[in-house]
Amino acid sequence: MIKKASKTHQKPQEYITERIKVEKLIPGGQALGTLKNGKKIFLWNALPGEIVTKALITKEKSHYLEATALDFEHLSKNRIAPRDACYLSTSPWQIFDYQYELSEKHALLKENFRQQEIDLDAQPVWTDNHEFGYRNKMEYSLYYDHADAKIHLAFHERASHRKVPITQSSLERSAILSRAQSVVDQLNQEHADARKFQSLLLRASQSDQVSGGLFENFQPRPIFPRLQDTILGVEYSYSPNGFFQINLPVYEEALRTIKPWIKTQKVLDLYAGVGTIGLSVASGHGLTLVECDKSAFQEMETNCRSAMRNWSTPPRPILAKSEEALEYITPDQTVILDPPRAGCQPQLLERLIEIHPQTIVYLSCNPATQARDVKILSEKYQINICQPFNFFPRTPHLENLIILTPK
Quick one: 101-131+227-406 is in which CATH superfamily? Predict the structure, then answer.
């Protein structure tokens, strides 16, 4: 049964109040149930085996609903109390026992590949067991509370434009939250208008140097002081609002896993970003890095110049789309792939099959598109290792490393 609860000046919220048995988790992180009318419902705040009796509908389509579970008849033994009140906005798997989170991520990874008819022999999900305080970057909204006439840090409610004011957030490094609160305190002292600002972005190095600041509406994004970090002994300089890995300790472990597979004299790093994979694992090799984003490319050039003193052959940065840099692929290479969530474009995969480089290193932030791409590459390649990494604990996200060698 669907019930509506009206709110002044807002669209009425709708609830589903029938008994729903939660069947399983699906790729993407929601739990799956089936309504009495046969329609599927995708639920946040629910675990397999639980029985939900009330849920807030966040999206309604002809064949399915999306919702947030509110009331329960039965709870899973794998449910724990979340640390943060804002967990649904930032990290909806805070309600999972951590070992259960790791096992479910492993199962969902295998399911993504099973859907591509690949029986994946995946290693257990690697974790450094730091469930909180791992994020080195966070972007906050600002919320003006008329009750106390003050600005507060906030996140957006999941699947909504509503803002949720926060007093605690556990995913980011503590230095970031401390600086964020200092910025808000200063705004309140100045009686600033929260509507003037789009967001507050802050980033911290591993030594807890914090940089970043406020983004004003309709204004160019400011240039913030750069940060420095070392990855596998290589020094990097980067902008707080540019692309750089969020969880450096786990990222370093992924790079340590990749490094022994760099056996060729030539290495091609596609979707290279600011160059942290190639420059960290391919010292002493002839390295070509390809990136299309201009700001990331400029940072990559800086990092290449910094690394040159340790290289007999200077690394070569190329400003281009990886899909349009196919002439750089040669048979005597190791090719590194770290594409966006959409995965690799068909023309790149076809070129890899045609040219047949010696090794393909594929690090993915989206195992679903990685599985699709590996299925195509399996015409000529076999999986040597599959190692998932828990880059983002307490969230559904998983990074996965596949090493491919010729059949």
Answer: Vaccinia Virus protein VP39 (3.40.50.150)
